[in-house]
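In this supplementary section we document a worked example of the pipeline. Step one takes a protein sequence of length 80 as its only input; no multiple sequence alignment statistics are reported here. Step two produces a three-dimensional model, which step three serialises into structure tokens for compact storage. The input and output of this example are shown verbatim.
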Amino acid sequence: MKCGSAYVMAGVEVRDRGSNGAVPLRVHIDEPEPPDHGFIWKRGSSSGTVRAWICAACGYTELYTDNLAALYDSYRKSHP
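The serialised model returned by step three reads:
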């Protein structure tokens, strides 16, 4: 960790309160509608779960997201 502590809680689930209770925090990217698609088309998207690494000495927190390859692919389609 940037603070240099050896007291780290790794991979802690980060939750948010929703209408149905606490749910894991996620990153979600929707892909744009392609200009040339057939009659049947389903919007593509990707998501990843956010996890925290927390210093138990000072509280410094770093957030990391999984499923990076799929997220980046969806992101590039929506931000050419």
